[in-house]
Every structure is written in C-alpha cells, then in structure tokens.
Give the backbone structure.
Amino acid sequence: MGVTFAMNSWVRNAARRAAGLAGGVLGMLALAFTGAALAGTGQPSPWQINLQGAASPVMESIHSFHFFLLVIIVAVVLLVLALLVVVMVRFNEKANPVPSRTTHHTMIEVAWTVVPVLILVAIAIPSFRLLFLQLDLPKADITVKVTGHQWYWSYEYPDNGAFSFDSLMVPEADLKPGQPRLLAVDNDVVVPVNKIVRIQVTAADVIHSFALPSFGVKIDALPGRLNESWFQATKEGIYYGQCSELCGKDHAFMPIAIRVVSEAEFAAWVETAKQEFAGAPAPARVAQGDVAGVAAR
Ligand SMILES: [Cu+2]
C-alpha cells in the first residue's frame, strides 16, 4: 500500500495540461474528419487520409463507428503518454533515489482490468449493431447478381428481364475526359437512387471480393457460393470500387462502377439495356455450373 499516488499540484497541473491537449487533438481530428468526409465520395481523392465519403446508410454508420473508435484510441494513447511522462519525471533515479518496494495494489489492479473490459464492451455493442446492419438484409427493391471473373465483373438483373453484361476496365489510352484511370469501365452498373439494392455475389473462377467504399460494401465472391449484401444509394452519381481479394495478375484492373440515377432514368436504361445486352452470355450459367460442380464432388 506504499505507492504514493498522491495528486500533488504538479500531477494536477500536468493532468490539466494533458486534458487541454487531448481536447485540442480531438478538435483537430474532428476537423480533419469532416473535411475528408466532404471530399471524395465515390472515388479516392488526392491526399485523402480518411475513409471515402458516405453515400449509403451503412457507410454513414461505418463513419460514425470509425470516429467513435478514433476518440477512444486518442484518449487511451494520451492517458498512457501522460502516465509515462509522470513516471519518467517523478520516479527517475534523481527525483526518487529510494524507490518503494511495493509490488501490489488491489484497487489499481482491479481498475486496470475492469476499465479496459468496459471499453471493449462499449466498442462491441455498436460493432455488432453495424455487422447486423450490413448482413441482415432489408426487403430489397431490386436484385443485382454479381459474378467475378479473371479479370472483370459481370452483372445480371434477374428482376428486370434477366439481361446480363460484362463490365471491363477502360484502358488508359481510351479514357474519355472525366473518366478516372483504373476505375472507369465500359458498362456501368446502373441502379435507382434511394432503392434497396440486394447484391448477390459469386465468382466463376477464383476468389474475388466486391468492394465499394462509398456504400460500405465489401463481400467475398466465392466460386460455388452465393454471398449477399445490400446497399441503398442516397445520392445520384457514379461510385467506384475495386476487387479486394488478390485474384491473379490483373487483380488491380477489374474495377467496379455503379451509376446511381433517378427511378425514371433507371427504367429507361433497363429498356435499352434489355436490347443492348440481348443474347449476351449469361454469367449466371457459369456460376450455376460451378455450384453443380461443387455439389457433385
Ligand atoms: Cu478479383
């Protein structure tokens, strides 16, 4: 019981200074966070240091959760830093030539066990809530089936006439003005704004991963399996993603482009797409072949 944790004035002042510093750092982080969140929705932006801007309820929740974690970790780091400084200044050989021989302090030991547990529980609750939000599918307005191939994506619209098409990256030499390098594709996926889009994701050859940062979607595309997720795009515009599972030599060259349009524009696009993509090989058949292959094994 000999540990002297008396709050003398030096420690009290240091604590006050640390609290001021923590407030300042948190303020700066909040500023950086809002600044970064305003920029770069739909695609990465130069010097981006934060997550891409949110364009779906799930991504908004990911942003809040991310910021919540940032606050906790900054507080923990500052507390540990303050304790280290106190130890270095107050208990170095010169300041404290005869060290205490105390080895245990029940209250402190209970506290440094219980406090981290409480922090973890505080993190776990919103974390599980977020997982459920991502994977517990609401009633969908439309379904898009996504199949990953080496090295492009193909899409099928089972609710809208079951047409399907392949979507390949636009090579750098063919980019039109405004098309981002390594992200633009020849055939965008088109979906209506504010509608709940269920995506069913599979692969025809190796494992890929369908990832769209602004919608908070990242789900593996596995041969012989059908994974599901969803998004609800809240803003019209074009949103880019990339394959996020190392799938071979052109892994970096199979981007995803989703164009979010009004309901009327979507209906018009469906009509032209039905004709444009009539007779295109259905990627579903490839995937079903894989499913049958797995079942037969
Ligand atoms: Cu891939």
